[in-house]
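yo

u said u wanted the structure for the complex thing, so here. seqs first:
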Amino acid sequence: MSQVDELPVKRVSRVARPELDRRQALSFLAAGVASGLAACSRPDEQIIPYVRMPDRLVPGEPLKFATTLALSGYGRGVLVSSVDGRPIKVEGNPKHPASLGATDVFMEAAVLSLYDPDRSRTTLHEGAIAPAEAFRAAVLGQNRLLKQRSGEGLRLVTGRVSSPTLLRQIDDLLGQFPKAAWHAYDPADDGSARAGAMLAYGRDIETVPHLARARVVIALGADPLGHGPDQLRSARGFAERRQPQNEGFSRFYCLEAAPTLTGAKADHRLALRPAIIGEVALAIAKSLGAAVRDAAVPDHLKELVRKISADLNSSPGSAIVLAGRTLSAEAHAVVHWINARLNAPVDLIDPVGRTPAGRQPQALDELVRDLKGGGVDQLVTLGVNPVYDAPADLNFSDASRKAPFRLHAGCYADETAELSNWHVPLSHPLEAWSDLRSIDGTASLVQPLIRPLYRSHTEHEYIALLTNGDMASPRDLVRRTWQAQAGADFETWWTRALHDGVIAGSAADPLRPAEPKLPQMPEPRAASEFQVVLQPDPSIWDGSFANNAWLQECPKPLTKQVWGNALALNPEDARQLGVSVGEVISIRSGGATIEAPVLVEPSAALGVGCLTLGYGRHRAGAIGNGIGCDATRLRTTKNPWTIAEAVITRTGRNQEPLTTQNIVRASDYVSELYPVRKVAVAARTLSAPEAERPPSLLPEAPPRSGDGNAWAMVIDTSVCIGCNACVVACQAENNVPVVGPEEVARGRDMHWLRVDAYDHGTATNPALGFQPVPCMHCEHAPCEPVCPVAASVHDSEGLNAQVYNRCIGTRFCEANCPYKVRRFNFRGYADGQEYANLGFESYLAQKNPEVTVRARGVMEKCTYCVQRISSARRAAERDDRTIGTDEVRTACQNACPTGAIVFGDLNQDGSSVNGRKSDPRHYALLGHLDTRPRTTYLADVRNPPTGGDGK
Amino acid sequence: MQIFRPGADTIAKVLLASCGAAPILLVGLAYGIMSSPYATGQDVTRNQPIPFSHQHHVGGLGLDCRYCHTSVEKARFAGLPPTETCMTCHSQLWTNAGMLAPVRASLAKDEPIAWQRVNKLPDYVYFDHSIHVAKGVGCTSCHGAVDQMPLMRQAAPLTMQWCIDCHRAPEKALRPREAVFDTGWSPAKNQEQLGRELMAKYHIRVDHLTDCSVCHR
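structre next:
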């Protein structure tokens, strides 16, 4: 277990003290004064225009381009803002079905990793910089050998490939070298889902659920609202069914082993061991008439199964059951049968990832078998890091050494590059030409926002080099792929596809397979040993984002942990094991041992510990090295997600997991700060009448502006899923610095927008709700009267403005703010004292030029994206019109997949924010303080199962 | 016996008086220095790599400001012309002039010309040209009589006080939109009344113009 990094200590060489007499001292003094005076005059600055100005480029004005970013190989459409040729902000593409105008944390953070100085920049041969020509010569040499043997001994390893161009190229490669093989794997893959589809339908089938059409959803270990390639679409569908004023308010049941976002938002949630969840699936199937054995469901769950079945039966055509990673293949097949029986709103489609010739990749364990048998001569790993994230039982690092020629192409010189002869840099997705498909098959183009910063190439170019010995232009390759599709006028089609960011009509058609077969589920073992359930990490996914500082500092939604992972234990388990929060324990399973700190998490199931992937890397870069523990060492090919028979022992060491500590569990605080309504009464206003306003020395109403804009924001906590997209979006838009683990330990995290979690359940049945807290922009702001230099002032449009150049760092405003939304730059986090290598020059390119980069000693906070308001106002005034209804959208509002955040003008009739302010669920946080916040909330709504008072 | 010399009284009185006067004088001195051209750069003519004469091009030839400063109506930066703009004329006029050798060299070597900045606001000030131009603030109102400057200098102090004076009472400096780029414009006798009419016509409200967040964000 690595310790938290120590503060870097600068060693300064001793300065030789000169011997001074009075005369010399006085003359030095005079010189000092004179130079000080000279410093008062304005320094010289240069302006450097172009020699030839590019067309359409207006200096300082952003241009937006549509492209696609991938997660686990599936594409999500984005619109990227580019200023002066530099991409600075990623937003969702409203036309793309996989993003629907929203983003998740990974898409937002992609723009930071583009400028990462730890990115691989040049060709490496045996770890040393080598010329590209040497690499080319080596590849050509291998090419010649391969041609003689029809490609025998060549193995290509990729991640999930959904790019039609890359699939076509792989066909060409395998056509050229018939005896070669292609393997693909994804660390976050749900292997049992594919196996389950094979059992049920006899073929590989992808399930695309439509939550917007589902009134009853049973999530069995599944996490549709959790991070993943389909999160945005699922979250939007979920939100559409959670409006209490509309008919058909949905009901979510969630049975899970490890706490997830879906479990937090579910109306009814139970934490169970994975085997029992499988049995519940069987019980539901049996209650619907399946010819299966009796399910071994514990007695206390039988009532629940009955309720679920009744609910499913009462919603024909709009009930759906989802199966997750911890379920076995047979359980997945049973769930397929249930969905078919219920006529559930799922589309079954052919999975993306098959080449035009119908080839499919082989699994990783076959590759390792070939490697061990000595049958592999050329191992080409393209954009993946199997030495780190392949299941540990494969021992990929040792096996790969058997291949004499090992080529790795990646964005970072990572663990796999360490063991390869040749490492070549891969272009970042924002620098590359390509195409991608999302889970539902929709294809979209990937276009570069900037020329490759370093000497990198795309996967297309490397595959072309391997196939023909010649790097083709990736743009030409992509154009050729779509030439056939486009019909007569290709150029118009191409321009339209690039402009829209989505290729119309490319979603896969739903299949109509035969009735799914019901497999015989094996009897469950009476499992009583401790299990560990693994999940992809909500901040760094499978480890590929480990060097992204924004994501490392993004608090995990359910535990609020940053800069590391920890084993989450149920309090009862912790008591039995005799461990408490902050103790380091070792987890042993099947010969592998890892050490992790402990977090006590009431939502975890009894007997199940939860750990996330992606940490414990040693070649991620300056940000990601040595953070957290590597859970991959416990993974096996057969059980990648559920580690059975894990033995937990105390090590006697301590390492406090770093959390931003905003999970409120005390019930009186929760009921005051996070009201939850039952759906039946949600349409009624809160019963307590508006308390009389206490007397105040402040003016009754804030000064009104001539334009008459009154900006306000309403956040609907019932649909907030805690995904943190708003947090990272705000960080990207407003140049919010990363402070690093030591400063977070001191409580100095800088996120302008934080997501508080409230446990509104009971001790045995916790239920988390999420409440994003930006600045409230109070009309009676407590932070304004206490500033001695009037740096915190009230705008005529209702904003509380922070004037950075007036601030002298008294911090009285932060002390007086009851919501604690103000952040102080204790060190020059963005200005000379950056954490690790975040001060590197390339990161300056990501900064938003519209927002000041704050210096040390200055207070900052959410500004309601005043730069966007100003931009919209200026654009409107140039055109001699008023700002349109809902025209200004803050960064957090744009990022939110469920539309929880709504921002707008209170003085504008028909604005969405006005609609929400008159919602019966509306409340102000700490309203009794008479701060009169402009940021207000809508209470959470839960839908308890019928017949009970809702557990 | 006398410890103090006869003049000791006077010295004591002078010192006491200066204890009271010195802070005020020092503040006055600091204020004087900071608002002097030494600190603000007003009327300081800066050396440029090429002695471009606005007097000749704008005053003499009559080039419109926007021919070179192309983004002044669209963006916050007015923009400096790329070398290509200079060469639109100078590829045919004065093609061998020694004074223009750096321009030709810039185009030939594809290296931009590094101009010395004349009008500069501090980094903590956000200034947008396009909104000023759209609302009837003319170029010469802030940049002075550019058409009479052989070498560019900063005509206005560009202090916050100077900006706020206009933001509080824009009617003193407004002109019709058609006259914004007219270098010969000067305020009429009834400027205040005309200005108020323009404020109504162009929807300029003063209350928001003095919000801190307009420039400091």
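Chain A touches chain B at residues 40-42, 44-53, 58-61, 703-707, 793, 795-797, 799, 801, 803-806, 850-852, 863, 866-867, 870, 874, 877-878, 880 (CB under 8 Å). The mean pLDDT of chain A is 91.
cya
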